[in-house]
Design brief:
By secondary structure, this protein is an alpha/beta fold. It has two domains: 124 residues, Medium-chain alcohol dehydrogenases, catalytic domain (Quinone Oxidoreductase, Chain A, domain 1, Alpha-Beta Complex), CATH 3.90.180; 151 residues, 3-Layer(aba) Sandwich (Rossmann fold), CATH 3.40.50. It contains nine helices and 15 strands. Helix 4 links the parallel strand 9 and strand 10. Helix 5 packs across helix 6. It comes from Lipingzhangella halophila. One of its GO terms (molecular function) is oxidoreductase activity. InterPro entries: GroES-like_sf, NAD(P)-bd_dom_sf, Zn-ADH-like_protein.
C-alpha cells in the first residue's frame, strides 16, 4: 500500500510503498479518509515524545477518519506500530461512527487537540460534580481554543482564556470567555496579567497547554500572599509543553494553596477512558460547538505537509 513513511528520526516522511497492516481478529481494514498532522505526530516520529518507540521505518499518525467496507465514516486510531494512520489502509482496535452533520476532515483535524483538554475537564466534572472557574493557558492554539469551548459547553461558571494571539482571544471573548492577553516575551507582565485575572475569579481548574515560563508566571499569580484557609482548592493539569519542557515550582505555592498538580495524556489517561468520551466529543463537531480549520494535503505531498504552519491543521488524505 501507499503510505507516509519516516525512515529516520531527523527526516520528513516520504510517500512510498509500505507493507499492508497486519490483520487482527474481528477487525476489517479501513480505507483512509483523512488523518490530522498533530504536534504529537511529529514528536512521536522524531523520537522526541515520551511514547515514541524509535523504531524505523514507521508510518506516522495517531488517529484518523476512515471509511468502512460498507461505506460508513468512522473515527479511529491506536494502530499497532510500526503502522500509523497516514496510509491507504488501517487496521485499528476501535471505531466510532460519525454522526450526520460532522465534517469528516474537521474531525480528523480537531479530535486529537479537542481530546487533550476534554479528558481533564471530564475528570474534574466526574470528581467534583462541577467545573467552577477554569483557567486555560495557551488558549489561542487549537488545543487551548477547543478546551475553552469545551469548558463553556460543559457548564463552567467562568472560563479565563490566556494567550498571545489577540485575534484568537477576541474570538474566544465572543464565545463568553474572559480573556487574558499575554505580551510577547514578557514573563513579569504575564504574572501581572494572570494575577489580575485570578484575583477577580480564583480558578478551581487550570489547563496548561504550554508549560515552561508561562507555567512559572501562573504559579506566581496563583500563590497566596497569606495563609487564608478559605481559598478554593485548585487542580492544575499539565497537558502540553510548547513553551518549554521544564518549569520551576515554588515551594510557597504548595504551602499557601490547596493545589494538586497532575498531568493528562497518553499513559496517565487509559485508552478505555479516552474511547468512552469520543462520541460526546464528536457530537460537538457535528452540532457546531467545536470547529477545526484544516488544510488538505494528498498523501503524495506529505513531506510538504510536514512543514505546514499556521492556524489550520494539516490533514493528509488519499491521492
Amino acid at each position: 500500500m501507499r503510505a507516509a513513511v519516516v525512515n529516520t528520526p531527523e527526516a520528513a516522511p516520504v510517500c512510498a510503498d509500505f507493507p499492508d497492516p497486519e490483520q487482527q481478529p474481528g477487525r476489517r481494514p479501513l480505507r483512509l479518509a483523512g488523518a490530522g498532522l498533530h504536534h504529537v505526530v511529529r514528536a512521536l516520529a522524531s523520537g522526541h515524545h515520551y511514547g515514541s518507540e524509535q523504531a524505523y521505518p514507521l508510518v506516522p499518525g495517531v488517529d484518523a477518519v476512515a471509511r468502512t467496507d460498507d461505506g460508513r465514516l468512522v473515527y479511529t486510531g491506536l494502530a499497532r506500530s510500526p503502522w500509523g494512520t497516514m496510509a491507504e489502509w488501517l487496521v485499528t482496535p476501535f471505531e466510532v461512527e460519525l454522526p450526520a452533520g460532522a465534517d469528516p476532515l474537521a474531525v480528523a483535524a480537531g479530535m486529537n487537540p479537542a481530546m487533550s483538554g476534554w479528558m481533564a475537564l471530564a475528570a474534574r466534572r466526574a470528581e467534583a460534580g462541577e467545573l467552577g472557574t477554569v483557567l486555560v493557558l495557551g488558549a489561542t492554539g487549537m488545543s487551548g481554543s477547543l478546551a475553552v469551548r469545551a469548558a463553556l459547553s460543559l457548564g463552567a461558571e467562568r472560563v479565563l482564556a490566556a494567550g498571545r494571539d489577540h485575534e484568537a482571544l477576541e474570538r474566544l471573548r465572543g464565545l463568553g470567555a474572559v480573556t487574558v492577553a499575554l505580551a510577547a516575551a514578557a514573563p513579569d507582565a504575564w504574572t501581572a496579567a494572570l494575577g489580575a485575572a485570578v484575583a477577580e475569579a480564583q480558578p478551581t481548574l487550570v489547563l496548561d497547554f504550554v508549560w515552561g515560563p508561562v507555567a512559572e508566571a501562573a504559579f506566581a499569580a496563583l500563590a497566596s500572599p497569606g495563609t487564608d484557609d478559605d481559598s478554593a482548592a485548585i487542580d492544575y493539569v499539565q497537558i502540553g509543553s510548547l513553551a518549554g519542557t521544564e518549569a520551576a515550582l515554588p515551594a510557597a505555592l504548595l504551602r499557601s494553596r490547596r493545589i494538586r498538580i497532575s498531568g493528562s495524556g497518553a499513559g496517565s489517561v487509559s485508552k478505555a477512558q479516552m474511547i468512552a468520551e469520543l462520541p460526546e466529543i464528536i457530537a460537538r463537531f457535528a452540532d457546531g460547538t467545536f470547529d477545526a480549520p484544516y488544510t488538505v494535503y494528498p498523501l503524495s505531498r506529505v513531506g510538504e505537509a510536514w512543514s505546514h504552519q499556521g492556524r489550520a491543521r494539516a490533514v493528509i488524505v488519499p491521492d
